[in-house]
Amino acid sequence: MITNNEQSKLRLAIQKSGRLHDDSMRLLKECGIDVSNGVNKLKAEATNFPIELFFLRDDDIPQYVEDGVADIGFVGENVVFEKNKKVNIVEKLGFGKCRLSMAVQRNEQYSDASFLQNKKIATSYPVIVGNFLKEKGIDAEIHEISGSVEIAPGIGLADAICDLVSSGSTLFMNGLKEAEVIFESQAVLIKQNGLNLAQQQLLDRLVFRIQSVKKAKNNKYILLNAPNNQLDAIINLLPGMKSPTVLPLATEGWSSVHSVLNENDFWNIIEQLKAAGAEGILVVPIEKMII
Ligand code: PRT
Ligand code: ZN
């Protein structure tokens, strides 16, 4: 029998150790969720939010969520698509970014996927690679291996590999080059199909916090001094959350302007602000951004 207490709790699966563990724990912390340190345990309980954490291997997370043993999980999108379980992606988490790419030996000429026709591809991602080949109408042999994929071409096991890449240095060190990106990935939040109403409400609260943390990371708070005769031009450059705040400075003819800037346009706008006469520009990180 399920008690009320269990019904209004979320069981979250995260990677026990590996590339996603620390960022997963950091995200929870940034969402104001405190977890007693459970790294050497299989489970941990949050002290100020009804969440229980399960620490698992990343490959197992989609299955646990499909089965409803965990309600939600943080896991790489690459694993979600490869495992192809009945789970829903709720939100991209902004960390664990990488790409699944075809790679070949540096001296090979790979202009497009037709290079792979009748070739042997070593990979730990047979499902995603199989779908890619099918979409391109290419016949190739997939050789599934679970680790050290990058050595396969050098030892004559395969003509190409398909593996995760982030900096590219592993490929480079093994005499390989990235030939084609077939899948872009990052960590995502997944959920099971059978959440009850109370759990869905908890998930909505968690997702709201995650979105606020992500927005804050993508934005900076900017303060600057502007001569009043340039205010219009400067305000036009600054979108702000609604519109910029303008306050008079003690010095006659000058104002202080406060606003929020998106990381992507950041340097571009700073240069234009300087050209428009802005001075004393301060840029500060934002901890949370609630819109
Ligand atoms: O023990 P467990 O099964 O939980 O962990 P794991 O060893 O299977 O996974 P782990 O911790 O290596 O990766 C977890 C997740 O991190 C992956 O599923 C991806 O979603 C994400 N991620 C991000 C990466 C990378 N970047 C990455 N670079 N996963 C693996 N790599 C490997 C890649 O396989 C290759 O060997 O790093 C090497 C390439 O890196 P670069 O920087 O040299 O290009
Ligand atoms: Zn794994």
Descriptive account of the structure:
The chain is of the alpha/beta class. The chain has three domains: 4-96 and 186-216, Periplasmic binding protein-like II (D-Maltodextrin-Binding Protein, domain 2); 98-184, D-Maltodextrin-Binding Protein, domain 2; 219-285, Alpha-Beta Plaits. It contains nine helices and 15 strands. The protein has helices at residues 4-7, 21-30, 61-66, 77-83, 126-136, 169-173, 197-218, 231-237, 266-275, and strands spanning 10-15, 43-45, 51-56, 72-76, 88-92, 98-105, 120-123, 141-144, 160-165, 176-185, 187-191, 219-227, 245-248, 254-262, 279-285. The two termini are 40 Å apart. Bound molecules: phosphoribosyl ATP (PRT) and zinc ion (ZN).
Helix count from the secondary structure assignment: 9
CATH homologous superfamily descriptor of the largest domain: Periplasmic binding protein-like II
Query: What ranges have pLDDT less than 50 throughout 5 or more consecutive residues?
Result: none
Mean pLDDT figure = 94
Which ligands does the model contain, each kind named once? Answer: phosphoribosyl ATP, zinc ion
Compute the number of structural domains. Answer: 3
Give the termini distance in whole angstroms. Answer: 40 Å
- What's the CATH class label of the largest domain? Alpha Beta
Strands ordered across the widest β-sheet: 2-3-1-4-11-5
Largest sheet entry = 6 strands, mixed
Helix content: 25-40%
- Could you tell me the radius of gyration in angstroms? 24 Å
Number of strands: 15
Strand content: 25-35%
CATH topology of the largest domain: D-Maltodextrin-Binding Protein, domain 2
Second-tier CATH architecture of the largest domain: 3-Layer(aba) Sandwich
SSE pattern, N- to C-terminal = HEHEEHEHEEEHEEHEEHEHEEHE
Task: Please state the overall shape, judged from the principal axes of the Cα atoms.
Answer: flat
Specify the structural class: alpha/beta
